[in-house]
Each structure stands twice: as C-alpha cells, then as structure tokens.
TrEMBL record:
InterPro entries, sorted: MFS_dom, MFS_sugar_transport-like, MFS_trans_sf, Phos_permease
Subcellular locations according to the entry: Membrane
PANTHER family membership: SOLUTE CARRIER FAMILY 22 MEMBER (PTHR24064)
Family that this chain belongs to: Belongs to the major facilitator superfamily. Phosphate:H(+) symporter (TC 2.A.1.9) family.
Source organism of the structure: Acorus gramineus (Dwarf sweet flag)
Protein's UniProt name: H(+)/Pi cotransporter
C-alpha cells in the first residue's frame, strides 16, 4: 500500500486474520443462512400445501397446487428479494451499512414467523396470506445480499478478502442443508405420532389434519438463527470505508477501527476532506463518467448473475420434480402426505450434502489462490458440460438413478465452486465505496430476475410433452430433457459474459477503482498522494 493512503484503510488492508474477521463472518453469515433456508424451504412443502388445500374428491392423484398458485407461492419471495436488493442496496449507500443491516434482519424474523401463521379458512385466504408475508420476507432477504457482501469486503484484508466474503456466502449451503434436515425431523416426528395410509388406499386419511402444522413449523424455524444474531449486528461498528469516504468522518472511522484492530490509528480528517472533494470522487451512478469507468463491469456482474440464477434456481427449486421424473421419489399416490415431505426433504438434503455444501467451501479455500475470474469461467464451463451430460443420454438416466444423482450433484458442485459464489463476491470489490452497495444490489437484483425466470419458466417447461402425463392443470411442456438443453445454453452464455468481469484477487478495494493512474494527472502535483487513495 502507498504511504499516502488513509491510515485506517491501510490498516484494514494489511491486517492479519484476527478474531473480528471470524466474528464478522458469523454475524453476516447467519443472515445468509436464514436467507437460503427461507428461500429454499418452500420447495419442501409445496406438494403438502397442494394435498391439504387443493384435494379433489375422487381424483386418482393427490391434490396439487394449480399452476398460477404454485408459481405465486414459489416466486413471490423472489419478487420481494429483487425489490429489496435494489432498495436496501441504495439505502446502504445513503444511510450506512450498519443502520440498514438491523432493519433487514428484523423484517426477516417477523415475516418468517408470520409466514407460518398464515391464516384463513379457505385455500385462497391461506395462500394469499402466505404470499403476502413471503413477499416481505423476500424484501428483507434482498437487503441482506448487498449489505452482507459490502460489510465483509470493507472489513476484510486484501490478501484473504475473497475467502471471507465466500465464507459468508457459504452459509447459504448450510441454510439449504438445514432446511432439509428440519423438514426430515418434523416429518418423521409427525409421521410416527400420526399414522396415515398411502393416498391410493385412503385419499382422505392419507393427509392427517395435523399435517397443517408440518409446513408451518418448517417455515417458522427460519426466524430462529436470524433472531439470535440481531444483538451482535447492532453492536458491530460501521465500516471504516463508509464512515471515512462516504460520511467523511475520519475521527469516527479511526476510533472504530482502532478498537477493532487494537492499534493506534491517526484520524487524518484533512486527507479525507481532500479525497472526498476530488473531482474523480464525485461522479454519480447515472453519469457518463461512471459508465466509462464501470459500465462494462456492471454489465458483466449483472449479466453473469442473471444467467447463473436461471440455471441455479430452476435446478434447486424443482429438484422434487426432477427426482420424481426419474423415479427417485415414488409416485405421490403411493405415499401419505407427510411421507412425501420426508422423501422430498431426504433427496434435497442428500444433494446439499454431496454437491452444494462442498462446492461453497472449495471456493473459500481456493478463491484467493486461483482468482475469481478463473473459478467463474471453470464453473460455467463444467455446469454446461454436466447439463449436456444429463440431457443427451437422459433416457439412460431414468433407469440409472445413482448415475443421474452423481451427475446432478456435480452440476451443483460446480455452480457453488464457481459462479454462484463469485457473482456474489466480485460486485462487492470493484465499485466505489459510495456506490458499492447500490451496484451490488443492482447485480443481485439481475440475478433474482433470472431466478424468477428459472422458477416460473421451469415450472411449465419441465412438464411432460404428452398432455395426459402433465401435472394437474398444467399445459404440455418441453420435458425435463429439453429443459436441461436450455439450461446448458444459458450456462454457455454465462461463460462468455464472464469475460467482461475484472479480476480483483490481491488488490485493495481502492486499487480496483481504476482511478489511481488517472487521478495522478487530474489532481495538482503538490498533492499527488490524494489521487492514489480516491475510491472509485
């Protein structure tokens, strides 16, 4: 680092890995644990909701959510998340990371509990209430994306910053895993206490009245880990980069970080004033100067996240449909309602354990060695390969379930040891401090737009091409095999758009600004040092 950089930022960049780094990972990571749990646990209970609220007397198959209801229940949280990412991302740059962080967490806790308390006597009122609270749950979750990434990137040292941000994101894997395990525990407990025959034996008795508690308990559990970290979030000091470079309070930034790092740090208010008044540090998000410096970068981070999430969320949310299509989960009519929850949860937990969780931690271990760019390229490449490997001999996999499962797990492994992690990390590193949270929010919202396409589109696309074999109420689709071809093409596009994203390994956040060289020319020669420390 240059000698003329702000001492407080230099201290953060060169700090050895300390206890406060791990504290920050846990505090930010528990938010992500809750995010993943809440977003993915709905896929465990949609079949149960169909059996409870949409049973049709005399039907040979159990009740199923109508297409529009299923799409609403599955996708409404993503709509909320997209809105939350944009709103809280912007607010994080205006009000500060810490102040907004508490708001998002409380919203998540309240709406997790409220989702499980969805009330009403008719199916319409229960589903409408559930959708209302899941929208606002998603809104809170959306805020956690830009804020968690930004806080961790601004706290971390430059040597291991990638691993720290990746570790926060890796908690998503544990959230998905815990969702499956909670569903298994709850379903086993209810199954042992309330015996029920398969649907084909007794359609009414196969769904015991107590099954209504199962989905509510699964949804409400998501509030617990978030509530446990609220106090810790409120005790975290504001990041020094926000306090110094955006709020322009050098004294507070130095004081906060001196306590965290346990070293003496000079305030340097005059240097902060000079930095923040620099012409190079004043352009806005919609300015020509921003587009010139960062337009391609923002296009790269937004497009790759968009394409990744189309594939990632369509896979994750509809695992149960894919498992059913290859016969890994028995036909619904051969099971009771709670047995079906157990089978779906078991399959999803196995995939999380074998493919999802390991991929995240490979990223944590290797991102600061290999680099973000190479990991993202590799991830998109292998996701494309494994999708095609599933699609071409698809009819072979319908008889070789273990082989299909291994291939499917590898697509998840390379999503997480690949673009699912890097698309979250890079936007928190390459934009200016005053726009960092906003730009991350825009990139993340693009991802959620992709997730909505994946969630809604795959719901219809994966239906059998034979109308007589589709789920009740759905039109004929293109089938799982053709859907896998589409997803492979999406991944290949992600590979190409990755070429727009810069490598940030080993560089300070201020170096990634790109203003160092230009600033030395623009700023008067008597004070060249200021040009070197202006954040872009």
């Amino acid at each position: 680092m240059p000698n003329d950089q702000l001492q407080v930022l230099n201290a953060l960049d060169v700090a050895k890995t300390q206890w406060y780094h791990f504290t920050a990972i846990v505090i930010a990571g528990m938010g992500f644990f809750t995010d993943a749990y809440d977003l993915f646990c709905i896929s465990l209970v949609t079949k149960l909701l169909g059996r409870i609220y949409y049973h049709v007397d005399g039907s040979p198959k159990p009740g199923n959510l109508p297409p529009n209801v299923s799409a609403a229940v599955t996708g409404v949280a993503f709509c909320g998340t997209l809105a939350g990412q944009l709103f809280f991302g912007w607010l994080g740059d205006k009000m500060g990371r810490k102040r907004v962080y508490g708001m998002t967490l409380m919203l998540m806790v309240i709406c997790s509990v409220a989702s499980g308390l969805s009330f009403g006597k008719s199916p319409t009122s229960v589903i409408a209430t559930l959708c209302f609270f899941r929208f606002w749950l998603g809104f809170g979750i959306g805020g956690d994306y830009p804020l968690s990434a930004t806080i961790m990137s601004e706290y971390a040292n430059k040597k291991t910053r990638g691993a720290f941000i990746a570790a926060v994101f890796a908690m998503q894997g544990f959230g998905i895993l815990t969702g499956g395990m909670v569903a298994i525990i709850v379903s086993v407990a209810f199954k042992s206490h309330y015996k029920a025959p398969p649907y084909s034996v007794d359609p009414i008795a196969s769904t015991v009245p107590q099954a209504d508690y199962v989905w509510r308990l699964i949804l409400m559990f998501g509030a617990l880990p978030a509530a446990m970290t609220y106090y810790s979030r409120m005790k975290m000091p504001e990041t020094a980069r926000y306090t110094a470079l955006v709020a322009k309070n050098a004294k507070q930034a130095a004081s906060d970080m001196a306590k965290v790092l346990q070293v003496e740090i000079e305030a340097e208010q005059e240097k902060v004033e000079a930095l923040t008044k620099s012409e190079a540090n004043s352009f806005g998000l919609f300015s020509h100067e921003f587009m010139r410096r960062h337009g391609v970068h923002l296009l790269g981070t937004a497009s790759t996240w968009f394409l990744l999430d189309i594939a990632f969320y369509s896979q994750n949310l509809f695992q149960k449909d894919i498992f059913g299509a290859i016969g890994w989960i028995p036909k619904p009519e051969t099971m009771s309602a709670i047995e079906e929850v157990f089978r779906i949860a078991r399959a999803q937990t196995l995939i999380a354990l074998c493919g999802t969780v390991p991929g995240y931690w490979f990223t944590v271990g290797l991102i600061d060695i290999v680099g973000r760019f190479k990991i993202q390229l590799m991830g998109f490449f292998f996701m494309t390969v494994f999708m095609l490997g599933l699609a071409f001999p698809y009819h072979h996999w319908t008889e070789n379930h273990i082989g299909f499962l291994v291939m499917y797990a590898f697509t998840f492994f390379f999503a997480n040891f690949g673009p699912n992690s890097t698309t979250f990390i890079v936007p928190a590193e390459i934009f200016p401090a005053r726009l960092r949270s906003t730009c991350h929010g825009i990139s993340a919202a693009s991802g959620k737009a992709g997730a909505i396409i994946g969630a809604f589109g795959f719901l219809y696309a994966a239906q059998n091409q034979d109308k007589s074999k589709t789920d009740h109420g759905y039109p004929a689709g293109i089938g799982v095999r053709n859907s896998l071809f589409v997803l492979a093409a999406v991944n290949a596009l992600g590979f190409l758009f990755t070429l727009l994203v810069p490598e940030s390994k080993g560089k300070s956040l201020e170096e990634m600004s790109g203003e160092n060289e230009e600033g030395e020319i623009e700023v008067v020669s008597s004070e060249p040092s200021y040009a070197r420390t202006v954040p872009v």
